[in-house]
């Protein structure tokens, strides 16, 4: 990306949260930063004067910008921290130490304790996080402690020791904050049920806890234990009012490589995320130029081997969107739901953003490649035998049958060719008959092109559904062009695309570039037709006002409008001036009518 000008790289950045990385001319990382809005933040480096000398020097050295999109600002901070510790960029001063973010630990022991920690010890305990601040952890733990009574002591509550009466309940038991498992007052089964519900709460899932407490509250109310039922009701309110304010990453997802692929006719984009303890430590997107009709499966398989070699990855587990064949010692997982699926979706988002960036940059640097890609995509999406380099779109305009007109707009290489636009007055149709009007206009258009031996379009777009499409087909049949030009209809309601002799419409993705070009054609034809229709109606109104004067005919009206341009100026003209244009006899009639 180093050869792409900085201005172009900036113009294609997304406006989502993420982490950006600056690289110098030798592709060495200079700086890692996070942003709530990537485009706004990164652009600020280049469009203002910086007071700090260090920042000015940094900006001078930047030759390429890379970024990783993430769901929230909190995730951006965590990812920024991981990347800084991994690469230790020269211009990052903050976060360069070896401090780590805090986690919530569910200890691997009988009657597990739950507490915050910065140490990640591999002793079978569960760790949730990392969190961006201790305040978030304390808020969450306060919620848990207000709902579930848990032990805080560090006794070894082995069954034989509890049975032998080795421990005595402490103040926490008398305050109601603990149910006294140390003296056997609470069973391990009940305690573990609480721990399972707490796990779900930490992940942001409150369903099981709320369901348990609501059924418990109803049972207590039926047993007339209203005070106990009220205490449960208070816990339900606490849970319902609490909302998880940060995205939690599952630390069980450790030492994993994630790969996704997005592709079009000419290129494929493979995103690679490397995870350690649920945190992203590396992100890279590879652009692959297609040579033949390679499948996504083949390309992803090759890309995984290439990327893992390039980054010297030794992860034994790989997440992918579909099955691929890799070395036998690797565990290939196709996630369907949960945390693993979310990480796969995040990787896909990064691939999509990278692809969009490239499109924006290519549009500026290499417009021909951009056009070729869109034409190839349209050919595939609309099942055409050739690329639609020349497209024509027809639209009818009439209001209650008055002044019926039609418009034909022309697009070449996906862009309007306004000098080739044409207006049509409907000649052979009486009243508001859209189908007959469409048949007339299509016939007139292509009869003329054939007579003048001009090039025919590869695609005709008809604004309307099956009815208008059938009418246009009659004209193509009459001219012997039925199989020579592809034709489709687009219905406004759900943007269905109709093909000849196919009753089932095609629904393109609403974000599809092919659909956007067809919509642009349709909208342009509608705008062009409506403008002509308005002009025709206003002219007809003017003509009728002048022609209503006795002794004034069409030719006189045309002569007056040619000289005076509007009825207002005709009304303001003197008798002498009017006489010079149309003679004294007619001038007197007009002058006396308006005065």
UniProtKB/TrEMBL annotation:
Signal peptide interval:
none
Q: Which domain of life is it from?
A: Bacteria
Q: Which residues form the UvrC family homology region profile domain?
A: 262-476
Q: Where in the cell is it found?
A: Cytoplasm
Q: Does the keyword Cytoplasm apply?
A: yes
Q: Which SUPFAM superfamilies match?
A: C-terminal UvrC-binding domain of UvrB, GIY-YIG endonuclease, RuvA domain 2-like
The GIY-YIG domain covers 15-93
What PROSITE patterns does the annotation carry? GIY_YIG, UVRC
Going by the UniProt record, its keywords in alphabetical order are: Cytoplasm, DNA damage, DNA excision, DNA repair, Excision nuclease, SOS response
How is this protein organized at the quaternary level?
Answer: Interacts with UvrB in an incision complex.
Can you tell me which family this protein belongs to? Belongs to the UvrC family.
Per the entry, what this protein does is: The UvrABC repair system catalyzes the recognition and processing of DNA lesions. UvrC both incises the 5' and 3' sides of the lesion. The N-terminal half is responsible for the 3' incision and the C-terminal half is responsible for the 5' incision.
Q: What is this protein called?
A: UvrABC system protein C
């Amino acid at each position: 990306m180093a050869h792409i000008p900085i201005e172009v790289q900036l113009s294609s950045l997304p406006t989502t949260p993420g982490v950006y990385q600056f690289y110098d001319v030798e592709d060495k990382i200079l700086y890692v930063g996070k942003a709530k809005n990537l485009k706004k933040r990164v652009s600020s480096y280049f469009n203002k004067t910086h007071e700090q000398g260090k920042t000015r020097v940094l900006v001078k050295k930047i030759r390429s910008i890379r970024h990783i999109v993430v769901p929230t600002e909190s995730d951006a901070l965590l990812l920024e921290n991981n990347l800084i510790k991994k690469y230790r960029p020269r211009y990052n001063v903050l976060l360069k130490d070896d401090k780590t973010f805090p986690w919530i630990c569910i200890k691997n022991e009988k009657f597990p304790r739950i507490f915050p920690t910065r140490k990640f010890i591999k002793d079978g305990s569960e760790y949730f996080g990392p969190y961006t601040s201790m305040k978030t952890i304390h808020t969450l733990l306060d919620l848990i402690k207000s709902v579930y009574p848990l032990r805080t002591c560090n006794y070894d509550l082995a069954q034989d020791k509890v049975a032998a009466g080795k421990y005595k309940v402490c103040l926490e038991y008398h305050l109601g904050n603990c149910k006294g498992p140390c003296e056997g007052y609470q069973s391990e089964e009940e305690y573990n049920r609480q721990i399972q519900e707490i796990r779900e709460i930490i992940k942001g899932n409150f369903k099981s806890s709320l369901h348990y407490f609501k059924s418990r509250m109803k049972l207590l109310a039926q047993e007339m234990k209203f005070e106990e039922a009220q205490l449960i009701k208070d816990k339900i309110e606490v849970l319902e009012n609490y909302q998880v304010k940060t995205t939690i990453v599952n630390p069980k997802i450790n030492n994993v490589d994630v790969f996704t692929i997005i592709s079009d006719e000419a290129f494929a984009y493979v995103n690679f995320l490397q995870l350690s303890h649920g945190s992203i430590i590396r992100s890279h997107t590879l652009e692959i130029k297609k040579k033949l009709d390679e499948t996504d499966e083949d390309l992803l398989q090759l890309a995984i081997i290439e990327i893992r070699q390039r980054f010297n990855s030794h992860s034994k587990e790989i997440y992918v969107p579909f099955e691929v064949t890799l070395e036998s010692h690797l565990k290939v997982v196709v996630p369907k739901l949960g945390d693993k699926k979310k990480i796969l979706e995040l990787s896909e988002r990064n691939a999509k953003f990278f692809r969009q960036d490239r499109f924006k940059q290519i549009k500026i640097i290499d417009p021909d490649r951009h056009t070729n890609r869109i034409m190839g995509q349209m050919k595939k999406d609309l099942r055409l035998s050739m690329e639609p380099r020349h497209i024509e779109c027809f639209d009818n305009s009439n209001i209650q049958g008055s002044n019926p007109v039609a418009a034909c707009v022309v697009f070449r290489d996906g862009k309007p060719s306004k000098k080739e636009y044409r207006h049509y007055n409907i000649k052979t149709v009486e009243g508001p008959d859209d189908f007959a009007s469409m048949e007339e206009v299509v016939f007139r258009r292509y009869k003329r092109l054939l007579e003048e031996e001009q090039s025919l379009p590869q695609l005709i777009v008809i604004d309307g559904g099956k009815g208008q499409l059938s009418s246009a087909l009659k004209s193509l049949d009459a001219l012997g062009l039925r199989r020579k030009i592809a034709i489709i209809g687009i219905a406004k309601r759900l943007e269905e695309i109709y093909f000849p002799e196919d009753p089932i419409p095609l629904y393109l993705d609403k974000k599809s570039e092919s659909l956007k070009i067809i919509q642009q054609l349709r909208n342009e034809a509608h705008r062009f037709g409506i403008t002509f229709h308005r002009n025709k109606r206003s002219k007809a109104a003017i003509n009728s006002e002048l022609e209503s004067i006795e002794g004034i005919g069409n030719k006189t009206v045309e002569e007056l409008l040619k000289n005076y341009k509007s009825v207002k100026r005709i009304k303001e003209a003197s008798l002498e001036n009017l006489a010079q244009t149309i003679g004294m006899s007619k001038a007197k009639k007009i002058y006396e009518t308006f005065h």
